[in-house]
Structure formats: C-alpha cells, structure tokens
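Structure request: histidine kinase, Undibacterium pigrum.
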Amino acid sequence: MRDYLNGLEWLKSGLFWRTFFMLAALVTASMIAWMSNFRTLETTPRAQQLAAQIVSIVTITRAALAHSAPEKRQELLRDLATKEGVQIYLLEDSDRVEEPELTPFFLESSPLMKKGLGNNTRFASQINGISGFWISFDIEDDHYWLRLEQSRLDPPIGQQLLSWAVLTLFLTLLGAAIISKLINDPLSRLSNAARAVAKGKQPPPLPQKGPKEIRETNLSFNSMMEDLVRIESDRSIILAGISHDLRTPLARMQLEVEMANLSDDARTGMQSDLQQMDDIISQFLDYAKPLDKVEFERINISEVMQQVIDEAFRFQNLRLRTAITPDIHVNGNLTELKRLFNNIVENACRYGKTSGSPVITLDVQCSRKNKDRKLGIQISFRDHGLGVPEQDLVRLLRPFTRGDASRSQANGSGLGLAIVDRIIKSHGGKLRIYNHAEGGFVIVIALQESKEA
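Returned structure:
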C-alpha cells in the first residue's frame, strides 16, 4: 500500500494536477448545483403542462365515448389503445388498487388534475397487477379507469439533460486541463531552468512571450543568468590568472631552496611550505574550472574508488577500511570523479586525525540503495577524528571555508569540500555531511546508478 501511495506522489506535488483537480472539483460542484436547481425550478411548470395534457386526454376520451354509437365503441377503444396509448377499463369495487408513489412531481400535478376532472378523481399506479398511470372518470352512472403508460409521467427531459450535462462537463474539464497546462508550462520551464542552475549547468534562455507577468519573470531570469555567466567567467579568469602568476615565483623559490646553503631541516620545512602553497593553487585552478562542459560516459565507479584507495596508501599513517560493492556503474566524468574522491581522502588526512594517535583511520563504503523503486548508489567516507562543531556544518560547503583549526592544526584553502559539492551537483547527485554518533566526520554521497545500455 505504501508503494502505491508513493506512486501517486505526483498528485500532491504537481502544480498541473493540483490546478486541474481544483478546477474539476469546482466545475463538477457547479454542475451538480445547477442541475439540482433546474430540477427544482422546472417541476412546477412541467407538472402544470402534464396535468393539462392528462385532463385534455380524459375529457376528450370521455366525450368521445359518451357521443359515439354503441356499436362503434369497441372500434373506438381499439383505436385509442393502438394509436394514442389510452386504455379504458370498467371500474369495479373488487379492483386491487395500488396508490401511486407520492413524488414531488405527483404532489404538484394531482391537485391540478382533480381541479380539471373533479375532486372524486382517483389515481393509481397499478390495478389488478397491471402497471401504469390510472385515472378514474365517470360517464353518467358508469365508472371507468383510463390507463396511460408510466413513461408519459417520467420527465422527458431527464436523459437529454443528463447527456448535455455530461458533454458540458467533459468539455469543461478539457478546458480546465488546457488552462492548467497554460498556467503550469511557464512555471515548469522556470523550475527546470533553476534546477539546471543549481546543478552548475547553463540552461537555454527562457522564451519571452505570453502574459506580461510571465514575460517580465523570464526576462529577469535571463538577465540574471547572463550576469551569473559573466561573473562566473570573470571569476574563473581571475582565479586562473592569479594561480598561474603565483606558480612562476613559486617555481623560482623551489629552485633557490634546492640550491641554497641550508640545513636539511630548514630545507625540508621550506619545501613543505612551498608544496602546500602549490597544492592550494591547484585547488584554486580546480575550483575555477567550469563543470558544465565536461563530457559524461558510463564508468565503473567501483574500479575508480579502488584506484583512488590504492593510490592513497602513499599517505603516511593512513589506515583504510573499505567495503566496496563491485561492478557499480554511473554516468560521469572519470577525471572529475577521481578529483572528487582524492579531495575527500586528502581532507581526511588533513583534518581527520584521531586524538592521541598518529594513525588516521578512514572507513570507505560503496553500495547500492533502492528507494522509491529507483536504483541509487550510496558512497560514504568516515574518519575517526574529533568531528566538526555543529554550528560549522552548515557553512563547510561554502568556498574558502574551513572547520575549526583545532581539529588538526592543519591549514588549507577551504576549497576541498566546495569542489566536492560542485562535482557531485554536476553529476546530479546529493551530498550530506554530519558528525558520527561515535565520533568522527562523515561524508555521504548519493548518485544515480547507470543501467546497462
């Protein structure tokens, strides 16, 4: 049952269906109210019309029988029965009479018929087991029953009215669907464009047509996108230029350190500082690189993670505990995914040191996860360090932001997790970071699994 309700999630979340069902409910309620009022208001005039017809039929039939020759009456009765649907029976005291149902229509028409035929007029819905609409009348001292088909009393407009109502309702619902689509399409395009921007992509310009509000909104969004593209381009150029210009003096400094007459400890310390500066510049370049133009292919992410783990053994005092499910594939860029995992491992080496121990323990897991009938991948990295203060978790994914330096007294650019976040978004994934209940910092990545072609 839960799976069925999850399958109907679109009924609650989609603006198109919300608008359509709201209009459909409003139109249906209006149609029902209109039909109820119509049936109520048309009962009196229809009862008057039908009562006048029945009075005329009884009056004419009585006059025809009273003035016809005795030998012609049988032929007259046959003609009335076959041509007019009027049957005449003698009224007997032994007749089994069933009173008609007291419907609003009968209660409205019976006084009118008695007024035209006499107060002694009787009505019945069945005489001696024969159904119909029966009216009594007298010719001198003889008493008769006149029988009409019950269909004459049924509202002839009922089925026709119902057919027109159904047709009108169908056309109205069709119009409601069209109106809902016209309302939803511009918002849907805007939502898709905003979602593309959130993933680091550049959506095509929105069409500047339609109502004034839609045109102004799309124009504002297109202008915003142009500004963002220009800012992103300027930022990339500035960062790349600064990083490139900084590497030239760094290379000279590294050469001078090699050639200088220094002690081994001084030379090693200076080389470490220069290498750290070079790593920071590399992160600037990685962050400045645009991700919306990278090409995706089907990649065995299990093998990629295993390669990164094998390379990570170069780090001293790093112990890796892995649980990687084999043969898991995603659509992605091999270079960016390697950069993603390398940044996480390097971040753990910098900040994930266990208090009181020289060994850094990093747990790495990769497995399939099925949620709402969708194939997904969950990748997690957990160190066993001191974690991150809760107030810092929200801002860790921002560029140039680092956690509390007291975790490891390490320095960095603050771009590691920002680069990770950008790469994951460009691959349509989700990132979650939190502190483990038993200690340590946890990074969880959710990606969509690629099915076989």
